[in-house]
Amino acid sequence: MHMSVADIEAQIEEEKRSTSAECHSAAWAEGLWVGIEPQIIAEAALATALRELGKKEDETTLLALLEEMHARVLAGEFLPDRTRH
User: Fold this and answer.
1) Which of 6, 21, 40, 57 could form a disulfide with 61 if both were Cys (CB 3.0 to 4.6 A apart)?
2) Do residues 48 and 54 touch, judged by C-beta distance below 8 A?
3) pLDDT by residue (tens digit) across 11-55?
């Protein structure tokens, strides 16, 4: 089967997302293990992500990311017991 450049790029992006999620999950687990509350871990992760992204992007990009995440929260994407809208 022949893969297009777009297919290959999509596969690479998915692998990067998967690896990133694994790294974050490991850090989350370690934080819980040492007694840090989930809310504190989440706040630190979000602040770090925005600070690092802000080094290369402007406020518009940061706000667009927050708006996208807001929509995903409202859709129930991050709550396992909630039906998506």
Assistant:
1) 57
2) no
3) 999 999 999 999 999 999 999 999 999 999 999 999 999 999 999
Question: Structure tokens of 19?
Answer: 């690896």
Structure tokens at 33: 């293990």
Pure H helices in 1-85: 5-33, 38-54, 59-74
Helix (H, G, I), strand (E, B) or coil at 47: helix
Interhelix angle 38-54/59-74, rounded to 10 degrees, is 140
Note the pLDDT tens digit of each residue in 47-79. Answer: 999 999 999 999 999 999 999 999 999 999 998
Query: d(Cα 48, Cα 64) in Å, to the nearest integer?
Result: 17
CA distance 73 to 84: 9
Question: Up-side HSE of residue 52: CA atoms within 13 Å toward CB?
Answer: 6
Distance CA 15, CA 58 (A): 26
